[in-house]
Amino acid sequence: MAEEVRRSAREKALEIVAIRDRLAVGLHTRLTECARALALRFTKGGRLFAFGNGGSASDAQSVARLFLDPSAGRPLPAYALTNDMGVVTALSNDIGFEVVFARQIAAFTEQGDMAVGLSTSGNSENVVRALDEAARRGLLTVGFAGYTGGRMAEMDSINYLFVVPSVSVHRIQEAQTTLYHVLWELTQQALTESSHGDGEHTNAHPGAHPGDQRRPRL
Fold first, then answer.
1. Which residues contact 148 (CB under 8 A, 6 or more apart)?
2. Domain 47-191 annotated CATH 3.90.249.10
3. Residue with the larger pLDDT of the pair 83 and 218
4. Residue 149: which residues within 8 A CB-CB, separation 6 or more?
5. Which of 126, 141, 160, 177 has the most Cβ atoms closer than 10 angstroms to its Cβ?
6. Which residues have C-beta within 8 Å of that of residue 109, sequence separation ≥ 6?
7. CA nearest 179: which of 69, 28, 10?
8. For the ranges 4-8, 110-114, 162-166, 196-200, which has the lowest average pLDDT?
9. Could you report how far apart the first and last alpha carbons of the chain are, in Å?
């Protein structure tokens, strides 16, 4: 039994390393371009809104926390649309769970903001609808999906889509975690390069919550 556990652990570790290696090669350019696009919007006062279901809801909260309260670098205005359960349950009960994120995008965002949708299958109806709504409102849209991308891979409304080519939900979520951490690092790097290049800085500064004056009233 102990040997079987060790063998399984080795296989899983090798699998996630192999997936991350493929993503590093295949998505490097797109990650860099996406980070620069995010950085540009942040410098202009844009805010990031993340959303997903289940484990992806936890990842959305991690994305928001990573940008808003980083261990290093500058804090940036970011919010998870799963945080306020009053709003989530009201929309789900009164209208339908399929619009729980799209309605918040419509209510709280402005042109120039950013939307990050996460789905392991790429087929989550409420994530798909929210990304479509975000695109209609002029937001920069970023998607994270697994398998072959599902419906998200067929959407014209996603500016940057990152697909983890795996059939394992566990490997998909592990790789997505790596991807959004890399995206955050590249965004911080792009902001630093921008501030060194033109002397401009974002409205964010240590010791304050950026975007407080435009924080959504949930």
1. 122, 163, 165
2. no
3. 83
4. 122, 161, 163
5. 126
6. 47, 49, 115, 134, 137, 139, 216
7. 28
8. 196-200
9. 50
What tokens were used for 118? Answer: 């996460």
Q: Which pairing describes strands 160-164 and 140-146: parallel, antiparallel, or unpaired?
A: parallel
| Every domain of the chain and the residues it spans | 47-191
78: exposed, middle or buried (Cβ count in 10 Å: 0-12, 13-18, 19+): buried
Report yes or no: 202 and 43 within 8 Å, Cβ to Cβ: yes
CB 78 within 8 A of CB 50: yes
Q: Would you state the structure tokens that stand for residue 215, as one six-digit string?
A: 């924080």
pLDDT digits (tens, 9 = 90+) for 15-59: 667 777 777 667 889 999 999 999 999 999 999 999 999 999 999
Packed helices 2-43 and 169-198: angle between N→C axes, nearest 10 degrees: 30
Q: Which two tokens stand for residue 206?
A: 């240590």
* Cross-strand pairs, 162: 144
The two structure tokens encoding residue 20: 């991350």
Q: In the structure, what pLDDT confidence band is assigned to residue 195 with cuts at 50, 70 and 90?
A: confident
**Which among 145, 152, 130 is positioned nearest to 82, based on CA atoms?**
130
CA distances from 180 to 52, 116, 136 (A): 14, 10, 24
Element (H, E) at 154: none
Q: Whole-model pTM?
A: 0.83
What is residue 201's predicted lDDT score, i.e. its pLDDT? 43
